[in-house]
Amino acid sequence: MLTERELESSYLGQFIPVHYHHNMLMDQNRMSGFKAAINHLVAPGAKVLELGGGTGVLSWFAAAKAEKVWCVEYNPDLVREARNFLSKNVNGHKVEVVEGDAFDYLPPEPVDVVICEMIHVAMVREKQVQVIEAFKQRYLEKFGGPLPIFIPEAMIMAVQPLQQDYSFEGYNAPIVQFREATFEQAGSIDLATPAVYSLLDFTQPVGTAIAWQGSFVIERDGIVNSLRFVTKNILAVVMEKNTTIDWLNHYMTLPLADPIAVKAGDQLCVSFAYRAGGSIQSLQASIRAGDASIFAVEEQSESVAA
Asked: What residues does the Methyltransferase domain cover (predicted)?
């Protein structure tokens, strides 16, 4: 019988099947970005902790320079697989794979770097924020400051109105879509420039509540029937070059319940509110889109209720 946390984890994406982790190994953008960031931030002889280690590959990147790496993984199938893979790779002996819950684990001694890749576009489904914030509290209580460096260091989230083709060989099906982060998207027409709606900086306290209200100037005639969500992960800040090492999640496109006809020059107002780690459905249900009157009506309703 699964516990309440295990049931929630299964539903929200924490107990990710092994084959999804295999797909992550084949994601070249993810792999090269994390390898570069880890190489930049892990100093020779460092102590490193990875929360949610999966196949162990990010811990293995760290082991190239670190003295010791603790790789914490909840899924026993992945624990076995990570131990097996690490045994076949040089420096794998430096990684201790710990079967445990990232929400509860603390290393036996202070560490210099913490790697945590529980990242979903828009920060829904996975518990990156909760895991890191809980870790900060436990770590400070046990070891005091300073906190380790976190990989990723921050993330920037943006949203964009689209006209999306939902016809599949003539079958109309408005569905949630995940697509490679490229400029050219078949069947997608950008109707306005993306707007940044949230910045999460793990060097600071990060809350789970995410809310935004803003507007777009429509750039061409069309029908807004979806919103594209974009998440740019700042894996490392390279101060000496005044640049960053980044990784873009797949774009997530959410269909709107009520499509909106627009013309170039129109102002489209959008709002939504959700919690990091919550479901895609909760984000989708919170979306409001239309002209400025939708906010006026909502504000008037809130004023009457108060």
From this structure: 48-134
Q: Name the DSSP letter for residue 174.
A: -
**DSSP secondary structure code for residue 123 in this structure:** G
Torsion over CA: 203, 204, 205, 206 (sign): negative
Per-residue pLDDT tens digits for 61-103: 999 999 999 999 999 999 999 999 999 999 999 999 999 999 9
Q: pTM for the full model? A: 0.91
Report if residue 17 sits inside a domain: yes
Distance (Å) of CA 60 to CA 42, 83, 213: 12, 11, 42
Q: How far apart are CA 228 and CA 219, in angstroms?
A: 16
CATH number at residue 33: 3.40.50.150
For 119, the 3-state DSSP assignment is: coil
Which residue reads 């780690």 in tokens? 277
**Number of domains comprising the chain:** 2
